[in-house]
Amino acid sequence: MAKLLETPTPPRPSTSIQDYLKRIYELTENGQPASTNDLARELNVKPASVTGMIQKLAAEKPALVAYQKHQGVTLTPAGKTAALEVIRHHRLLETWLVQTLGYSWDEVHEEAERLEHVISEDFENRIAAALGHPLRDPHGELIPTADLTMPLDESIPLSALRKDQSGKILCVKAPDSGLLRHLTQLGLTPNTFIEVTDYSPYDHNLTVKVKDKTHVLGLNITSKILIEGK
User: What is the CATH number of the domain that holds 212?
Assistant: First the structure.
């Protein structure tokens, strides 16, 4: 009896390719293409190196990016799927490190950056099941689903709020450990209720009340804190 031929599993992209795809996904979440300069800054490489890698990704079969000179780069469906896979690994690992191993939210990013490239899909599935299939990571970032789709995000930046408006912090988009420690000291962590008591139209600073404390926050912070949408 003839054996049925199994469809071979496509090889996982290299670590460097995964890093590129993840950064492109993050830079294009606003719907705009990512520039080579933005990618060079995010990945700490030279723009010429970025151009070479983008051309390589565009030549893959299937192509992982769509690229036009001077117009930036976007992910193709295949590239987006690959990016969401590594993002899912990263955010599940961060959640696991906090909930199981006692890491704080400002310690997990670098650990997850290293581990996200090497865990198997079985390990990923076991982590997700053990954690109860979480929707968000310790920073409040949405975790892509097992079928590699990103849940709908209806949050709004804290910077959009004005005097007498309020809401619950859903997410902090800041991998910088120093900033995360600072936000912990201020009490600005996910699931915390925050109220805007004043707004300065000249420098866009917000005065916010968190529990019984008041803080004045600039755009560098308020743009990184996402609030539950109304």
Answer: 2.30.30.90
